[in-house]
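Board notes (copied after class):
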Amino acid sequence: MTVATAFPIPPLTRFRRHNHDSGHICAVLAGGFIERDKSSWRDVGPGTVRVSGGAHHDIDFSDNGALCLVMEVTSDEIGALGAPRFFENDLRLSALAYEMKTASDKGDAANSLKSESLTTEFLAQLSRRLNGKPELVPPWLERVRSMIHDTAGRITVSGLAIEAEVHRVHLARTFRDHYGIPVTRYARQVKVQTALGLLRRKDISLAHVAFETGFADQSHLTRAVRAESGRTPGAIRSMLQSFKT
């Protein structure tokens, strides 16, 4: 899984003969830098997303330094990458990058899951731009995602297709193309995030958490939470209580 890491760069830092051996994404959240582009220099400011394959370049950071969200990616995740490409003033990519940073900073289980989902969507959207596909999400697809959140993930693909007035196969294909994840998995992640929120309450049993979030039983809840977070609900609850203490 691609991990997005935020790096604060001190003012006036200079990187000479700086190398990236693999695919590399840098989303500039604040500040900026200038990068040598062949015989000239390119100004890269806040809100810019830079993506390239392996790179060898010189970088000078601004008087204010920079805050960059950096990801290393493979061709399997985003397709073949060559010379650097820059996406400036792309409101959606910028918003996703800021949300990824915020979720990553919080560091709890629910936000770690949210960060993973945001990263997957970011890569899917960047891939669309690299391949010349339309960037805008169809309004009906935005409604589908809203319905998933409004129902806390407790809605079927058939139900979503009926509400959106599209075929369920078209819905599934389009959802994955824009958000980088199957719609069924996205709904499960939303259910798990809701469950993780309830785990903070010591007065609710795990069986009741399962009931409240639409899982068949406690075992079903445990399997879903472990699949998405790598930990059981009991282990996460223990961590939350230990942290609070």
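Comment from the instructor: Residues 31 and 66 are 4 Å apart (CA to CA). The mean pLDDT is 89.
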